[in-house]
Amino acid sequence: MSSRRLVDVSHVVEHGMVTYPGLPSPIIGDWLSREASQARYGPGTTFQLGRIEMLANTGTYIDAPFHRYADGRDIADYPLEAVADLAGVVFRATGGGGRALDARLFEGRELRERALLVHTGWDAHWRTERYAQGHPFLTRAAAQHLVAAGAALVGIDSLNIDDDADPARPVHTILLAAGIPVVEHLCNLGDLPDDGFRFFAVPVRVRGMGSFPVRAFAIAWGGGGVSRRGSSLGGERRVGYPAIMITNTAVYRNPFYHTPLDQTRTLDYPRMARVVDGIAAVVRGLASD
Question: 218 forms bridges with which residues in the sheet?
């Protein structure tokens, strides 16, 4: 049975940290310290009651329509179905092809009713000056494409899903007008598979807020991320035979293999076709050597 794993894709919130330059940092401390609590409780019994003063746009956070529109739904209006247990898809944009990520990034994949996470690798600069300089972002055309395709949620591991030099903020404007949640400042998206996982980004139900921090995470099955493992074909290599070992590819054909979700309705036939095509291409390459 494929092993289930939890992947945390949210940043830690700490006292004094900077999420977005120019915005206030969180102030975290005691309302009641352990020392002061000794006067309230029995001998040897102490508690800490913490206090935090924090901008809603701190750490990894989610935006609701009210963030952009005065008459839009706020954070408390999000049903759990909108922010939890969503089928997830990762789009890799780490190749240095430019800052502006357009609709082509999302072509050829199933988008409807899925959480679409853009992996740029920009989280490597988190809490450095570089993080706020020249970050990747989505274009207006990309946002329009995602709305038309029926995306359930869009997230990115960058400073802003919009170009912060564009005061019109077209991506926020388009996605939030369509009621699509936006999650910014994600991290560790390289630890996720391309698809076949469940995504969660649940905020506290606070009324009157357009944004709020989340503990974003994913549930994935089997091996993960963009790493690749070698095989143990030592014997064949020692005698000079070109070889490839194809073992159990079930987790790649269907990430829900041997889980409660291993059902006909969860099969991703385009993904299965890509796996088969990939194996065939490798075999053809070996045959031509």
Answer: 7, 199
Closest CA to 230 of 243, 211, 217, 241: 243
The CATH code belonging to domain 61-221 is 3.50.30.50
What would the two tokens of residue 142 be? 């990309």
Give the residue among 113, 119, 201, 104 at the shortest CA–CA distance from 149: 113
Residues written for the chain: 289
Q: Residue 59 pLDDT > 70, yes or no?
A: yes
Distance from the first to the final alpha carbon of the chain: 36
Instruction: Give the pair of three-digit tokens for residue 209.
Output: 């807020």
User: Cα dist. 247→173, 187, 209, 231, 279 in Å?
Assistant: 47, 31, 50, 10, 11
The pLDDT score that the predictor gives to residue 255 is: 57
Least confident of 3-17, 92-106, 270-284: 270-284
Calculate the alpha carbon distances from 84 to 9, 120, 215 in Å: 14, 23, 11
* CB-count exposure of residue 162 (10 Å: 0-12, 13-18, 19+): buried
- Spatial separation of the C-alpha atoms in residues 179 and 62, rounded to whole Å: 12
Q: What does the pLDDT read at residue 231? A: 37
d(CA 86, CA 147): 16
- Domain edges within the chain: 16-53, 61-221, 234-288
Nearest to 94 by CA among 117, 116, 120: 120
pLDDT at 10 over 90: yes
Structure tokens at 54: 């924090």
What pLDDT does 283 receive?
72
DSSP SS3 for 30 = strand
Residues 6+ apart with CB under 8 A from 237: 243
pTM over 0.85: no
* DSSP H helix total and E strand total for the chain: 7, 13
